[in-house]
Design goal:
This protein has helices at residues 18-29, 43-52, 76-83, 95-98, 111-121, 141-150, 157-171, and strands at 2-7, 33-38, 57-60, 88-92, 126-128. It has a single domain (2-171), classed as Metal-dependent hydrolases (TIM Barrel), CATH 3.20.20.140. Strands 1-2-3-4-5 form a 5-stranded parallel beta sheet. The protein has 7 helices and 5 strands, in the order E-H-E-H-E-H-E-H-H-E-H-H.
C-alpha cells in the first residue's frame, strides 16, 4: 500500500512536527510506502525523517525536482542529502514540469539529471513513471517511455527492466512474470 504526501510548499518543518511524525509512524506501522512530492529544498528534511523511520520507504516524485525550469544544473547538495538515506527512492517522471520548454521531447537537458540520480542512488532505488494523464499534454505515452528506454545508454538492459517495473514489484511485493 502507498499513500501520497504532497509538500510542495516551503513548510518542510512539517515533516518533524507532531502531525508529521504521527503520520510517518502510522505509515511505518502499516508498512506503507510514502509517495511524496517535494521540491529539492525538501530533500534534506526528508532524508532526516527517512533516517528516523528506516523501515519506511519514501518514493519521491518527478526526480525530486532537483532541477527547476530556471536552473541549468541540478541541485547536487539536495541530491547528496537524499542519496544518503537508503530508504529514499526516486521516480523518473515529470520532465515537462521541470523544463522551461514543456514540449521539448526528448528532454535532452534532463538526461544528465537522470544520470546523476543513477550515479547517486544506483538502479535499485529508481522507478520510472509516465505521469499520465498529465504527460499527454506534452508528449505521447509512448514518447514518455521511449525517452527512458532510448535515451539512457549508460543503463544495462537488466537495469532498465528493474527501473521500468521490477523495482516497484519488489517494493510492493508484487509477483513478477518472466
Amino acid at each position: 500500500m502507498a499513500f501520497v504526501v504532497s509538500r510542495t510548499t516551503a513548510d518542510y518543518d512539517w515533516f518533524s512536527s507532531p502531525e508529521g511524525l504521527k503520520l510517518f509512524a502510522k505509515a511505518a506501522e502499516l508498512k506503507h510506502v510514502v509517495s511524496i512530492a517535494v521540491f529539492a529544498p525538501g530533500l534534506a528534511p526528508l532524508a532526516k525523517i527517512a533516517e528516523r523511520f528506516p523501515s519506511l520507504t519514501f518514493l519521491v516524485h518527478h526526480l525530486g525536482r532537483l532541477q527547476e525550469k530556471t536552473q541549468t544544473t541540478p541541485n547536487f547538495a539536495a541530491l547528496r542529502a537524499a542519496a544518503a538515506a537508503p530508504n529514499v527512492w526516486f521516480k523518473i517522471s515529470g520532465f515537462h514540469h521541470l523544463s522551461a520548454v514543456p514540449k521539448a521531447y526528448p528532454y535532452a537537458t534532463f538526461q544528465p539529471l537522470v544520470r546523476a540520480l543513477y550515479d547517486a542512488v544506483g538502479p535499485l532505488r529508481l522507478v520510472w513513471g509516465s505521469d499520465s494523464p498529465v504527460v499527454e499534454q506534452h508528449m505521447t505515452y509512448r514518447q514518455s517511455i521511449d525517452m527512458f528506454r532510448e535515451h539512457t545508454p549508460y543503463l544495462s538492459t537488466d537495469e532498465k527492466i528493474l527501473i521500468l517495473g521490477g523495482n516497484l514489484a519488489r517494493l510492493f511485493t508484487w509477483p513478477t512474470s518472466k
